[in-house]
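Section 5.1 Outputs to date
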Amino acid sequence: MGGDVLRWSGYRSMPWKNGGGTTREVASGTLQAPLAPAEPEDGFDWRVSVADVDAGGSFSSFPGIDRVITLVEGEGMVLTVDGTPHPVGPLSPFAFSGDAATDCRLEAGAVRDMNVMTRRGRATAQVQIVTVAAARGAEMACAAGETLLVMAVTEGIAVGGPDGRETALGRFDCVPHEGPRALTLRGDGTVAEIRITAAR
């Protein structure tokens, strides 16, 4: 995985598992070791997607999956996870279990959220929101065996290439990255930094 830009226009649209809406798959993958005890039906160890939520309702169940959801458009929502309500505000990553009974209530109309899913016992994810300032940019490096994905949450961000050229990122475009070379970001805006590592 070498830093090619994944474009919003190219993401595959697919129905939610429970049929209640649609999501766009940004990227997914499996880790190098064999899946155990057997390869699951959905076949991923990690997955990043962006979903449009037009109305409240129940979330799909994903047994054995850990989830981090981040509101990237809209005013807010309340997720009730196994009976406990959790307000989720814009650009505030919220982690919860895919096994849990989860319902969503919208606070002020439709929202769009970024979902990061990892298979428990196989992979873990860390998600944070990073502000890129025009004066200094940002550099992000990978630890050995780590996969980094950087999604532009706003316009105004560009990623530097090994030849020194910069590639502009549109909103919700994503750059996957692995290896020792740091990923360089320029511009003035906000990105979501997603780090996938093998579970220990």
